[in-house]
Automatic annotation (TrEMBL):
Keyword flag Metal-binding: no
Keywords: Hydrolase
Full protein name: HAD family hydrolase
NCBIfam families on file: HAD-SF-IA-v3 (TIGR01509)
InterPro entries associated with the record: HAD-like_sf, HAD-SF_hydro_IA, HAD_sf
Classification via CDD domains: HAD_sEH-N_like
A GO term for molecular function: hydrolase activity
Lineage: Bacteria, Pseudomonadati, Pseudomonadota, Alphaproteobacteria, Sphingomonadales
Domain of life, per lineage: Bacteria
Length: 206
């Protein structure tokens, strides 16, 4: 059942909602041995470790510490720092079209993303879709991360809409729960087709 408040703005997550993200995809190009690839992605460059950079931990410090902890993997750990865009193979099917249709209907668009500052700047320069967004709150810039309350409160202030009048879209159930607890309207993203149906039901798409 939808919140009775009309949606005045739509707020997207970025990774796995608007763009695909697969760190293993980068390292599969660099590591031929499937066993070593599994080990490396499970123990060395993991999503949990990467999340520390999203939260604002310094990249050079992270890389140096990881090299010390896992000697013999310097080139691969450097690739994480220098080739991050190769972990983003392309758009999530159908999502960019939804963004463009919302923009064409003059629906205010925003984003809240757990994304490291350096990687975000590199990625943003390559992705014109975000020209359609009024503002993007980036965890690495703010040293705040989803699903903690502070990043949602900051976003509401920056975006200029009450939480209950915004629809927040994210693939991570913890992030959805964090926003919903603060009164945001939410959509747990699974695919663009389901999102389109929800947006149409809310009168945001035709």
């Amino acid at each position: 059942m939808h919140n009775p408040d009309p949606v005045q703005a739509v707020v997207f997550d970025v990774g796995r909602v608007l763009v695909q993200w697969d760190m293993r995809g980068l390292f599969a190009r660099l590591i031929d041995d499937p066993g070593k690839l599994d080990w490396f992605c499970t123990h060395v460059v993991t999503e949990e470790w990467h999340f520390e950079h999203d939260a604002g931990r310094d990249l050079d410090e992270m890389v140096a510490a990881r090299k010390a902890e896992f000697p013999g993997n310097d080139d691969l750990i450097d690739a994480y720092a220098t080739r991050f865009l190769e972990t983003i193979p392309g758009p999530v099917p159908g999502s960019h079209e939804i963004v463009r249709e919302l923009a064409a209907r003059a629906v205010p668009l925003y984003a809240i993303t757990n994304f490291a500052s350096t990687f975000w700047r590199e990625f943003r320069a390559s992705e014109p879709l975000f020209d359609l967004f009024g503002d993007v709150v980036v965890s690495g810039d703010e040293k705040l991360v989803k699903p903690h309350r502070a990043i949602y409160d900051l976003a509401a202030r920056r975006f200029g809409h009450a939480p209950e009048s915004m629809l927040f879209i994210d693939d991570n159930p913890d992030n959805i729960a964090g926003a919903a607890a603060l009164g945001w309207q939410v959509h747990h993203f699974r695919d663009a087709e389901t999102l389109r149906a929800d947006l149409t039901g809310r009168g945001l798409l035709g």
